[in-house]
Amino acid sequence: ACSLLFDSGAAGGGHMRLVPDRRLRLEGFVLGDELWEQLRIPVDMAFFFETGADPRTMAYYPSPAGPTESLLPLDAWEDLRASNPVLATLAPDVEALLVNRARGAREHFLVGIDECYRLVGLIRTWWRGFTGGAEVWGEIERFYEDLDARCRVHTSAAVTAAERS
Q: What whole-number distance in Å separates Cα of residue 94 and Cα of residue 107?
């Protein structure tokens, strides 16, 4: 019921935002190895979101210590946005691009920021030792399988009004 209060951009004087439930698996997403290197993410999973108050792009990666910020060269993000028009539809502060390149995966999702922090919590809970252990990797695999099952597939450069909601 409280979500009705935050369904407007003016909710809480513009300081409160409803996390949308839009989940898209981005097929044909353009993010090659060279551009990934330019983003300077030291691990193979990360999420990116844009802030609303002080417009800029933030990059975080999940770690056993929690969400870790990575400094993001804006020119690399702009190249990524130019190659993938769907990124222009990210709702500031509450939606993110979630990238999974771990263990050879090349998966890209547009999700609510809560999904990203759910992954962070999972890694914090299950990580053991230096490499995480078999249990955490099984949980990560289940996380992405569950997320994929709840996603709609987005393949075209055009984003429909239905996908924005």
A: 20
